[in-house]
């Protein structure tokens, strides 16, 4: 039996629109965003490299929510991907853009192949720029919409072992804050989610222990979507908010970098 749309779900689509794009939607947090937006009544365009895995996510959502789901098996490092997304959205009322995709070069910066670094820049930096620049004009014309850029607590300071990833996430924080300042008077909510650890398949491939403040993907998505319209930057989870305050404002910079370095040694 299909889940019925609640009044809150109807208000979400009325506020933003009928369609959402989720970039990086094959598993984990991206799949949770797809499910969470569908639960709020939105049709979906999903983008990820792994088409078969993404289609499984789509089939489950269609069966449970009765919404339309279109899948684009595309590499987000490919500059032409955003054009394919624009074509898929032709004639559709785009309400929400979630840029969740990320590439994470692991290891000391000088030990990482430069091709990996270039891919991270293409996915983590060029990707959100291209998607926002291509898809925001339509939202602005309609005077409504929302953008969620996924960042990380790693982006609040330099992070040894994942230096390029952390730098790209810092870029997304500043980009999102700037867009929030430019677009809020035009009816567009922009929010940067500075995520702590999330219990995703990617995380469990590296560790079988929960990190302090770890949230499930579903809880992370719920809190993030509920925070739309409340400011340019959001940190889900009370423990993570405390950590962000501690690392970003209370500790000396070199101390914060040392702490985060110890926490990322096992990844690199």
What report would you give on this structure?
The chain is of the alpha/beta class. Helices cover 50% and strands 15% of the residues. It has ten helices and seven strands. It has a seven-stranded parallel beta sheet with strand order 3-2-1-4-5-6-7, with helices on both faces. Helix 5 links the parallel strand 4 and strand 5. Helix 2 packs across helix 8 and helix 5 runs parallel beside helix 6. It starts with 6 loop residues before the first helix and ends with a helix.
Key words describing this protein structure:
268 residues, alpha/beta, globular
Count of separate DSSP helical elements: 10
Helix proportion:
40-55%
Radius of gyration: 18 Å
**Helix/strand order:** HEHEHEHEHEHEHHEHH
- Neighbour order of strands in the largest sheet: 3-2-1-4-5-6-7
- Structural class of the secondary elements? alpha/beta
Terminal Cα separation, in Å? 46 Å
